[in-house]
């Protein structure tokens, strides 16, 4: 049997091994948050640009601008919520990792609480990723190519033949 100080070191080493997977998960969530923040910044920039170029109600482009602004507003809301949920997931994972060490050092048995915390973190992450998926789908609605441009492209191809 190991002396008491070596037992403590061995237990802490084991706890560190248990904490490695959640730490890699945190790195992945950090990357997801980076992508979400980048998308949010681009959407906000586009909304500001569109607001500067906004036309009066009698202008032919006004309706299209209002439609795009509504989609941009929805994307901003979705990205913000996804960031919130993914950040909450990361914070909960940090709490679980801290709980691993507290439980090991104090010999408190709250494994079930930590398991529920980890499950909650995964549900938050899945919810954030689902909102990200919806945001991407909404973004696709704003990048439709106008029909008259497609006709011009078709005419150019037929000319080259």
UniProtKB/TrEMBL annotation:
- The source's superkingdom equals Bacteria
Instruction: State the organism named in the record.
Output: Edaphosphingomonas haloaromaticamans
Transmembrane stretches, start-end: 12-36, 78-102, 114-134
Q: What is the lineage of its organism?
A: Bacteria, Pseudomonadati, Pseudomonadota, Alphaproteobacteria, Sphingomonadales
What keywords appear on the UniProt entry?
Answer: Membrane, Transmembrane, Transmembrane helix
Listed name of the protein: DUF2721 domain-containing protein
């Amino acid at each position: 049997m190991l002396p008491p100080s070596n037992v403590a070191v061995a237990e802490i080493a084991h706890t560190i091994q248990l904490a490695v997977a959640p730490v890699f998960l945190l790195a992945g969530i950090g990357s997801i948050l980076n992508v979400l923040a980048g998308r949010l910044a681009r959407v906000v920039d586009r909304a500001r640009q569109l607001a500067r170029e906004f036309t009066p109600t009698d202008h032919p482009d006004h309706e299209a601008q209002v439609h795009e602004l509504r989609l941009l507003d929805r994307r901003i809301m979705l990205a913000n919520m996804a960031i919130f949920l993914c950040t909450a997931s990361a914070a909960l994972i940090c709490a679980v990792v801290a709980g691993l060490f507290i439980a090991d050092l104090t010999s408190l048995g709250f494994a079930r609480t930590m398991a529920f915390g980890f499950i909650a973190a995964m549900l938050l992450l899945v919810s954030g990723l689902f909102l990200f998926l919806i945001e991407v789908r909404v973004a696709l609605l704003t990048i439709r190519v106008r029909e008259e441009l497609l006709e011009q492209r078709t005419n150019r191809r037929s000319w080259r033949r």
